[in-house]
Amino acid sequence: GASASVGAGTGGASTALVDGPGRVDAAPGRPLSERLGNMGRALVVVVAALLVSSIVLRGFATERFPLGNMYEFVAMACAAAIVFGLVALRKPAYRTLWVFLLFPVLVLMFLAATVLYADAAPVVPALQSFWLPIHVTIISVGSGIFLVAGAASVLFLMRLRQPRGEERGVLGRICRLLPDAETLDRLAYRTTIIAFPLFGVGIILGAIWAEAAWGRFWGWDPKETVSFITWVIYAAYLHARATSGWRNTRAAWINIAGFVAMLFNLFIINMVVSGLHSYAGLN
């Protein structure tokens, strides 16, 4: 009887432990946005390590600074975008953006490895200067940071459309994973503020190099002209972003126009238009 009482008491206690307020519930599953953010962060770290390693190995293979053709420039710009993304998007609110940052980087690297690839070789005599690592590095880093700003503006415009449209469909599901529109707009603005002076300094240093190499600071070469136009567009974006009535969609479209101009300068000017800056390395 005693043992039965004890057993009953124990059983009652066990039931109380299971059903009582002290029970331990299973941990709730993580939301999809958090899982995508964690996966994106892991991929970004891997991509950053691979890109930086490829640039270093390319330098050893060519026995020079690895910025002598379009393939190497795109690799450096993508590495700058990824490394900057690891710093700028470190907050939990930005984690889902890592996945969207990888997409343009993967597209650019695919083009670099297929269309733009050039074998490791010495550069032409005009590029054998100490200005090469200074001027081109600053331009490529600025271009990589502009990539982050352009992606943020595109996602900002997508996020603005989401509350007005249906939440069904691919676009609606993507938009629900993004931060709010104000956060994306602020990210694009702050990122452009960092890239804009870098790009400007790169243009100025390029003019100094041009004076040493060609005897003039500025000759309206196609590359110089479109670079200056790109810089002016980004200046217009910063001005529009600070002007009442232009802060939302209008400023974002100007930012995207600046990024399109930069891509035009990189691909069309280098590959189609002939000029003093034609060092694509595709022939």
Give a nutshell description of this structure.
The protein has 283 residues and is mainly alpha-helical.
Properties at a glance:
283 residues, mainly alpha, globular, disordered N terminus
Give a structural overview.
The protein has 283 residues and is mostly helical. It has one domain (31-271). It is 72% helix and 0% strand. The chain contains nine helices and no strands. It has helices at 2-19, 32-62, 70-88, 97-114, 131-161, 169-177, 181-214, 222-241, 249-271. Helix 2 (32-62) packs parallel to helix 4 and helix 4 crosses helix 5 (131-161). The radius of gyration is 26 Å and the shape is globular. The model is unreliable at 1-18 (pLDDT under 50).
How many β-strands, per DSSP?
0
Q: Structurally, how many domains make up the residues?
A: 1
Instruction: Give the averaged pLDDT, no decimals.
Output: 81
**Distance N to C terminus:** 97 Å
- SSE string, helix = H, strand = E? HHHHHHHHH
| Approximate helicity band | over 70%
Detail the poorly predicted runs.
Answer: 1-18
State the secondary-structure class. Answer: mainly alpha
Number of helices: 9
The radius of gyration is 26 Å
Strand residue percentage: under 5%
Largest sheet: none
Shape: globular
